[in-house]
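Two proteins were folded this term; both appear here.
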Amino acid sequence: MDNKKTGNVMALIPVGVFLILYLGTGVYFEYISPGKDRMGFYVISVVVAFSIALVVAFLQNRKKTFEEKIHLCAQGIGDDNIVIMLFIFLMAGAFSGIASKAQGAVSTANLLLSIIPPGFALPGLFIIACLISMAMGTSVGTITVLVPIAEEISRNGNYLLPLCVGTVVGGAMFGDNLSFISDTTIAATKTQGVEMKDKFRTNLRVALPAAILTLIILIVMSFAGKSVNVGNFEYNIFQALPYFIVLILAMLGINVFLVLGLGIILFAIVGAATGTLNYETLFIAMGDGTSGMFETMIVAILVASIGALVRENGGFEAILNLIERHFSGKRGGTWGIVILTVLVDIATANNTIAIVMAAPVAKDITEKYGIDPKKTASLLDTSSCIAQGIIPYGAQLLVAASICGIASINIIPFLFYPFLLAVFTVISIIKD
């Protein structure tokens, strides 16, 4: 009997091993035996956990030789979309590194902060978090930059600190979900074989209404606090300009390699002109940026290898059969993608990893039920960002909480945008 047709639940054991190692260790060291200077979910490296899971996958299916299994892994890693994704990760890392060293991120944030009207602190903070995250492509980086400012707004404006911090986290997740250089966007689009501009347009139909409603709520809440001047911030308009150029070109649908390449060149020129970069620091910054992507790239390679073996052994078909038993038709398949992605993100506490793990099954569901691949890419990114933006042990909330000295769980009631994004995602599925 062909396992790939009938499904084989045992083929999913490597995934279970990963979840037990990573989630189990994370829960233990985060909540049962917490350390003073560490986050529980970073005790065991995700690369180590996936490596052990890959070993388990190799030990399965004795009908295949070791060489045949290596060939299957090579085919999985060599998929066109995986290779493109890896190259984009490299370029996005170089762009992020040089932009940071050239003071682009700081100048962009300060430029936007300096134009917030005194009575518009909360909604202004949300808008800036959205824009900075879209430009930087990282929610954690945005949170690191803006949470100290949120503390000041809380103090001066008589707003609850968790409210101000939650506003930043919500805006950061908006940008993470939509940014063209975010690893979640890269993973979601390239694993489904769709253009970033198409996924962006599909995504925006859900994200924009949630953001607008969040903004309205924050405007109403602003009346409860004092009119507060956010402060005076120094910035260089030329250092911020490349971010806006890259953002506009990406939204126009220009090839992502061209956009990132142009961004790197522009920041190199601006950095040299403003004295923030020289020949030495230019290449150090690019090297640091690409190095920051290595773990994500290795994870993508390991997951592609595990996925190839799990698929060959009938694991994906077992998941599809499970979804088919509980959901039917195109809408049911859509629900299956969302639920699978959310569960994987809750288990891994990393939205990029959740997308990469769920993507092969999502692609099979897409083909089986005739779902638009652009919709699938949007759902992968959106549902993973919803879960990641809410779980108290995710990097976003843990970093935000550690900066301002509060418990991450206290921020959750004020995460208006992630909760509203979930509502509009559900509405979009029901309407289809």
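Next, the second protein.
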Amino acid sequence: MLLDESARWYGYWTVDAMKGGHVRKYYNEIRESFKHSTKERVLDDKIRKLIAHAVKTTPFYADFDEDTPLTDLPIVTKDLVRGNYELFTSSMYKDATDNRTMYTSGSTGTPFMVVQNKDKIEHNTASSILLSAVAGYFIGMKVAFIRLWVGDHAKRSRLSLIAENMIQIDWANIDDEALTEMVEGFRKEKVQVLIGYSSALARISRFIDEKGIDASDFSIRCVIPMSESMPVPVRRSLERQFHCPVRAWYSNEENGIMGIQMPHGDGYYIDTESYYYEILKMDSDEPAEDGELGRIVITDLYNYAMPLIRYENGDLAAGEHKRSHGRYRFMLTELYGRRSDLIYDTKGRIVSPFVLYNGLAMLDDLKQYRFIQEDVKRYTLELNGEPDKLDTEEMKALVRRYFGEDAEIDVQFVGDIPVLNSGKMKNIVNRCPVYQP
């Protein structure tokens, strides 16, 4: 570490020690679990205590017994929580002055909030520090955080930004002029860490290549994508441009940073000290087999203010449970993204979006794309690029390779494809009536 980084790193832990050392205690536990996996008896005890607390203090779980097994509790969706906040709020923490409220608008802009107690906040901080360090980002490093910064809860004070050595970059209304200023700012400000939406980082990567910018002398030492899947070609492009590792977080606003992408491949290590994950089958609440595509269901082990037990966050993945000598580890072996974005071939079989991400993401002269399933066999491919420089027949062949030779594909050239209210880019859209919930 450099002197300035070391001062912030040790300074942070000194302040934490003065406050009781809670974050350091949790950090050490999570680090131990990352190295050696989680003790099953400790995990079971956390789940049991959380359920007992929820039964005693929240209306939603009041009719259950305190010793109810986790798998006998209902699946909880975002819509269910959104319409019944008071049922999930713990009477013990309802009026606590040290609670924190996290907000997310999701893809549609519909508000969603989760209240977190102090212990959850401290544990989330510890997990964030550890999973950031695994990616190469340590407290004190100069970080540029690229996202849509909206609402008073998202704003940081100048003093806070100085303390965190952070630059907030708003990903709203970004054009080439803004990109030029942004990239030059990375060099001028000696930014060491880039964190941001995968689609934002992809656009920055493409801009660097288009403008012939030599980023090899930048100070960037790690890149952390978040919130969206990053195509492998984009990840490799960023690694080539900045000569540093690129490892994504798996996170959301309501839970926090829950996992980190492995250095090779697309799998994610999940923090099992803080969360218990289930992967359930697509059409039932039965457990999926290891490696089988299913619905992610999360139990947040530390949020006692608003217990989220068996919370289905809308993401799909394949996972793998590993148990050995009384210890437990969980990996997401493949992350598909939102259930609403599932796409199907002409015979009704699910197709991984990565076949399109990896096939289209880094094509020369293609700035943006969006793939839409209009009907069972009918698809639209929207392209933002130069028509005379893009081989549309080659793109149709790519689609038919994975979706069926009888796929009907309409290629349309469009201008800028707008981002969602959340600031993220939705590359895959399913409008087919047959596949709507």
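The radius of gyration is 22 Å. The domain at 1-136+268-338 is CATH 3.40.50.12780 (Rossmann fold). These notes refer to the second protein only.
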